[in-house]
Amino acid sequence: EELRYFSAGESVMPFVSRRLGKIGVAICEDSWHLSVPYLLAVQGAKMLVSIDASPLRMDGSTGELAVAKKREMMNCTYANLLSLYVAFANRAGNEDGVSFWGGSQFINPNGNIIAEAAKFVEATVDAAFDLAAVKRARLASSHFSDEDTRLTRDELQRILSQK
Question: Is 115 within 8 Å of 127 (Cβ atoms)?
Fold first, then answer.
């Protein structure tokens, strides 16, 4: 649906805050593409802010709020693998017959949820965070510090040249 109102960007870059350092912003669909959080992180983003308007979708077989479970797993995985904070801000309420489920979250660089809003209601999420935790998490886990971006670039170029 987003393509009815927005077009895809042509670059992925974090912005620099004087107080907080590099912050990556993903808007709704952006964060469903692994490449966006990855590219922001390898450019030094210490936090991924994901701004969403995710509509309510229930799992027909279990009755669970399927998209919320997927988002939580995805957000925690990004935080853990990329060793950064994830601030997930999701819309709550109803508009034109569409329901939005809320459930905003703040996740630390170890992939743990440290603050979470209730689902289905507008809420504010307050969380204290320490940006030095990003550095500690990245030093403690070689999976991010050993990332070979040249290999990634070369393999993507090889794959694209075969299409």
Answer: yes
pLDDT of 94-144, one tens digit each?
999 888 999 999 999 999 999 999 999 999 999 999 999 999 999 998 777
| Distance separating alpha carbons of residues 23 and 117, to the nearest angstrom | 22
pTM: 0.90
Structure tokens at 131: 């940006």
**Tokens read off for 63:** 């009755």
Amino acid at 14: P
142 and 150 Cβ atoms separated by less than 8 Å: no
Q: Is 77 helix (H, G, I), strand (E, B) or coil?
A: helix
E strands present in 91-134:
92-95, 98-101, 105-107, 113-116
- Who wins on pLDDT, 65 or 124? 124
What structural domains and CATH numbers belong to the chain?
2-161 (3.60.110.10)
Q: Residue 40 and residue 32: Cα distance in Å, rounded?
A: 14
